[in-house]
Specification:
The complex is a heterodimer of chains A (495) and B (225).
Chain A lengths: L2 E10 L8 H10 L12 E5 L11 H4 L3 E4 L2 E4 L4 H6 L17 E3 L2 H5 L11 E3 L29 H4 L3 H8 L7 E5 L8 H5 L5 E4 L5 E3 L9 H5 L5 E4 L4 E4 L4 H5 L5 H5 L5 E9 L3 H5 L6 H8 E2 L4 H9 L4 H8 L2 H8 L4 E2 L10 E4 L3 H8 L6 H7 L7 H8 L4 H22 L5 H11 L3 H12 L3 H4 L37
Parallel strand pairs in A: 1-15
Antiparallel strand pairs in A: 1-12, 2-7, 3-4, 5-6, 8-9, 10-11, 12-13, 14-15
Helix pairs in contact in A: 18-19, 19-20, 19-21
Chain B lengths: L1 H27 L15 H26 L1 H8 L2 H31 L1 H5 L3 H23 L3 H7 L1 H9 L6 H4 L3 H16 L23 E2 L8
Helix pairs in contact in B: 1-10, 2-3, 2-4, 4-6, 6-10
Classes of the chains: A alpha+beta (495), B mainly alpha (225).
């Protein structure tokens, strides 16, 4: 056993209102500079939809993640030799057009234009070339446009559905969508780490945050291809790749990451998970349909005395184990089993989990009258969003995984209906719970965690123990009167 | 006197700059050490420029180095007329590839608005120097045939004399103008190396072939509490 701690998160999609506040909080803090304008370390997508960068889920095009080559696990971009062979031109690298060309407007023209017959306008200009441009894409270009046959119909997950399912999805007045915020998943079997020729990308041992050493990065751009979620970005001014850092400077000060802290819908939960690092490879080699379950299986019970002892032996600090016991992520993923990884079939073992959205799926059959448990469960098969689509997103195509989650979410809803309105017989409620395999106490706990908790319970930042870090051995006066964190130089080339 | 400065002094200056400034930049400003790829901004033309450029120039450079490092073995290889002929033709073909490739790369920098927006003065210096180098190289291969042989009796002893700190510029003094230009420009590129994106040449990530896929870095010592 080689037990490690991982700062992981849960996004509760039923609660996401698609306001993009998280994206803005992140942008203002980390990517508000030349060359990084197009990067959205946090972005919010409309699903079904093509996302950002366009069709990022289509790994036939982008070659992200891993695949099984016989018995061995290999990056989809190719073996090591072949990756080095493609270093002069990476055939599966997305270009700026796959994201969007960043733009601004000539606001100056509004006030400085000479008097004339026409109203002055602020023309859009490219933030790359400075020349006027036609805006044809943006970071959330298909925002709220699900059901459109220009955008949603091209969603790689939709393309895989049967004709009948697609008709169902795009039927007028039955159209449905949900928002899906995405950040770096800080994977256990990260594609970006494995693909970096320079070895510049690494996982922090203590908390599992994946970072790019900017001094070691040489701009070979393989991480951009190798990450199936397209969450590493090439800085076209600096020649360095960058990615979400899970706001580690904030976490080291005990604060929530900016996107978590600013989340209006309070959909985001953060906490430590303990896992067995020796089993990463064997989990990543499972069949597509078993991956979600296998990934749940690698996560260990922080209350188990044997796990605690082994964790201490592996060097996990006692304070971190204590934080793991308070982790809301552990509850969502393991205890209640209502959060699933995004696209586990990419085999990177992403450590960001999603509670799939119930509302748009079920509300069609839920209008007018509250259904009994029996009805409710049968309608799951006729849900507005095809189960196969959701299974393709969150369970490697395994519908049973998604249905199991929905049964639980429905049980919570039925019990709350019974408590607050009181029009459901007790037998219905207990039946819903037993079908969902969730105890009444657990249903209450899910309800409480979803609706009533405050930030300290939703976001349990583990102690990062900077006082024990390597820097503690350095001269404390060494960096006195310096500028502190961050890049101290303008983001432009000096050589 | 000019020959002495160009071929007896300048090579030392160029190599000193490469090593001195290179080490300075690597230690003080490692963040700037990058290939500065512009593929993200323009990918299609880059493929036809970058791929033939890199592969062809690597083989050509290798030939130049082998003829300088192991001249006797090189001479044996060329002893057979057929082999000599094959080598000359291959070299010429590769040279023409690099010439076309560098033209494409220059065209791309001018023609594509995004790429030209990220192009700096030093990028242009490098591109012009590289163009001059491959153009004179191809011209020499055409007009002064069997260069793979006469290189052994001119450039090789001159380079060795430089290493022995006893520059024998007479090896080059008698050479045609275009050869002198090719030689001088080679050291010009070496001088440009530490100031430009050329630094990526020494960052060939061969360790990737043997390192473990996943890297974990601990920022404090691992110990059992």
């Amino acid at each position: 056993m080689n037990i490690r701690a991982q700062v992981s998160s849960v996004f509760h999609l039923d609660k996401c209102i698609g306001c993009h506040t998280c994206s803005i909080a992140c942008k203002n803090q980390w990517t508000d500079r030349k060359g990084a304008e197009y990067m959205w370390w946090n972005n919010v997508e409309t699903k079904p939809g093509t996302g950002y960068p366009t069709k990022w889920e289509d790994q036939e095009q982008y070659k992200g993640g891993w695949e099984m080559q016989g018995e061995t696990l290999q990056l989809k971009i190719g073996g090591r030799g072949s990756t080095l062979g493609k270093i002069f031109h990476n055939p599966s690298l997305p270009t700026m057009d796959d994201y969007y060309e960043p733009f601004t407007f000539r606001y100056d023209d509004l006030t400085s234009a000479p008097a004339g017959k026409d109203q002055p306008t602020a023309r859009p200009v490219s933030m790359v070339t400075g020349k006027p441009m036609k805006i044809e894409a943006g970071p959330n270009w298909d925002d709220d446009l699900s059901g459109s046959n220009i955008y949603a119909a091209n969603d790689p997950g939709v393309v895989k559905l049967t004709d009948e399912e697609q008709r169902q999805l795009f039927a007028i007045e039955k159209m449905v969508f949900f928002h899906m915020p995405r950040i770096c998943n800080h994977c256990l079997n990260a594609g970006c780490v494995a693909g970096c020729p320079s070895g510049a990308i690494y996982k922090r041992g203590e908390d599992g945050i994946v970072l790019i050493n900017q001094d070691k990065c040489r701009g070979w751009r393989m991480c951009v291809s190798a990450c199936p979620y397209k969450k590493t970005y090439y800085g076209w001014t600096t020649g360095k790749s960058e990615k979400c850092i899970l706001c580690y400077p904030r976490q080291e000060a005990g604060q929530a990451p900016a996107c978590f802290h600013s989340c209006v819908g309070r959909i985001r939960y953060l906490g430590v998970l303990l896992y067995d690092a020796d089993r990463i490879e064997s989990v990543a080699k499972q069949d597509d349909k078993d991956l979600a379950a296998a990934q749940r299986d690698i996560i260990l019970d922080p209350f188990d005395p044997q796990v605690i002892e082994d964790a201490k032996k592996s060097g996990v600090a006692a304070q971190v184990i204590k934080a793991a016991q308070k982790s809301p992520v552990y509850k969502f993923v393991k205890e209640w089993g209502i959060a699933l990884p995004l696209h586990p079939e990419f085999r990177t073992l992403p450590m960001l989990f999603y509670v799939p959205p119930l509302l748009p799926v079920m509300s069609m059959d839920n209008q007018g009258k509250q259904k009994m448990a029996d009805d409710f469960f049968t309608t799951l098969e006729q849900a507005r969003l095809p189960m196969q689509y959701l299974a393709g997103l969150f369970a490697g195509g395994n519908e049973e995984e998604v249905k199991a989650v929905y049964r639980k979410l429905i049980a919570v809803r039925i019990q709350r209906r019974s408590v607050t309105v009181g029009d459901l017989p007790a037998a219905e409620v207990s039946k819903a719970c037993s079908v969902a395999k969730l105890s009444t106490e657990a249903v209450d706990a899910v309800y409480r965690m979803t609706t009533l908790t405050r930030i300290k319970e939703r976001i349990v930042v583990p102690p990062m123990l900077r006082e024990e870090a390597i820097e503690a051995g350095m001269d404390p006066h060494q960096h006195r009167q310096e500028m502190g964190f961050g890049s101290r130089r303008a983001p432009k080339r000096r050589w | 006197m000019t020959d002495m400065i160009l071929f007896g002094v300048f090579p030392y200056v160029a190599v000193a700059l490469m090593i001195g400034v290179g080490i300075y930049r690597y230690t003080v400003d490692r963040y700037s050490w990058s290939s500065q790829s512009s593929q993200f901004l323009e990918s299609r033309v880059l493929f036809w420029g970058s791929v033939p450029w890199h592969y062809a120039i690597l083989v050509i450079l290798l030939a130049h180095f082998l003829a300088f490092l192991v001249p006797s073995a090189w001479g044996v290889v060329l002893g057979n007329p057929l082999r000599l002929y094959l080598l000359e033709v291959t070299g010429l073909a590769l040279g023409i590839s690099t010439l076309i490739a560098v033209f494409l790369l220059i065209f791309r920098r001018i023609n594509n608005a995004r790429v030209s927006a990220v192009t700096t003065v030093i990028d242009w210096l490098v591109l012009v120097a590289l163009l001059l180098q491959v153009a004179t190289g191809v011209y020499i291969a055409f007009t002064l045939r069997w260069g793979s042989v006469w290189y052994l009796h001119t450039a090789t002893p001159w380079l060795w004399s430089l290493i022995k700190l006893d520059p024998q510029v007479h090896y080059l003094a008698a050479m045609p103008m275009v050869v002198k230009l090719h030689t001088f420009n080679a050291f010009m590129i070496i001088a440009l190396f530490p100031f430009s994106r050329l630094v990526h040449v020494v960052s060939v990530p061969l360790t990737y072939l043997s390192r473990p896929y996943q890297l974990v870095v601990w920022y404090r010592e691992r110990r059992a509490d």
